[in-house]
Specification:
The protein is an all-alpha fold and 57 residues long. It contains 3 helices and no strands. 70% of the residues lie in helices and 0% in strands.
Length: 57
Amino acid sequence: MSAMGWSDAPIYERLIRERGDVAADARKTAEATWREVGRIMDFRLPHAIAAQDSRLR
């Protein structure tokens, strides 16, 4: 969007009132999904995993 911003866009404000802020809802859902995936899956690099495994032995 241009320099005017969302608050100066009456069409966008009307859509938010009618339909809800879909962009904000999608962003919140994506962030929550990212946190959940981070808890479930291990994204560490293989050498970090190997280092931790060797410390556990």
